[in-house]
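Project standup — Tuesday

K.O.: blocked on the structure for the chain from last sprint. Re-posting the sequence here as requested.
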Amino acid sequence: MIDRLQELGKEALEEIKQADTVKALDAVRVKYLGKKGPITEVLRGMGKLSAEERPKVGQKANEVREEIQQQLEQKTEELEKIALEEKLQEESIDVTLPGKEVKRGARHPLTAVVEEMEDIFIGLGFSVTEGPEVETDYYNFEALNLPPDHPARDMQDSFYVTPDMLLRTQTSPVQARTMEKFKGKGPVKIVCPGKVYRRDDDDATHSHQFMQMEGLYVDENVRMSDLKGTLEAFVKEYFGPDRTIRLRPSFFPFTEPSVEVDVSCGICGGDGCRICKHSGWIEVLGAGMVHPNVLTYNGFDPEKYSGFAFGMGVERFAMLKYGIDDIRHFYTNDIRFLEQFKRV
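H.V.: unblocked you, prediction finished:
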């Protein structure tokens, strides 16, 4: 796969070199960096690789993507400059007059973070799956081992459209729907990004609408050590190779055993500071082994299959990585804030 990725990189750079218009460059970008491009196709086959080969292939894929992106940006600037010079020569205008600056948009920071997370998990053999934001009571609760009297069903926590329909409170229903489609035959290895909704008072750290990235891996002989290894690889790739994780016992209705996952503080290096409340650790996500009831509800034999699941808030990971102190910045569309992420 590494040879194939190198081959694709060379082909892309050659096509960029030969492109003579911005439109042609955009076609190259879509061809090689799009979700249906050959690089993504190669990564989708990583599930067949050994655990030792996957990180190497994932790292090579990221290097090839970055090289292609850099060359695209450089060639775009060159073509735009040439086009401007040709236009100035053709038109009779006073080029000494001051012009108006054209404001150019960029990816929203949350979009950038989701795409980065997706790339990391694709490199670990996961595929990206999405589902509806207006969900049924069954997939949002019952299929996830949340009985009718569970507190999460309270109207104070959820936005109901009808007695049986609501705005999803988590992206876990996508996991249930996907397991159901596999009809009891593994492996299932997916991540599910998307918006979720809960009744909450908006403040610096809470919002009634936010984004989640959840993951699920169901197969024969899946262990807690697989969960820890996956999350540790993700954290090191996202935050940096010097960061570590720890697992603490917790409770979630859809996993057993369940854990809270902490990452070592990047400010103090684990010594303790104001950011980590002098503990050296920052809580980032919840995880655990898929509850046998959830496997049964969704067609899998818990005697044969096991699995792990995890869920993280995208805004929290963005805030930790970029030092953002208020979740509301992501949704107020303040240009001064958004302009800081033009190159993210």
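K.O.: great, moving the ticket to review. The two ends are 28 Å apart (CA to CA). The first strand starts at residue 127 and ends at 128.
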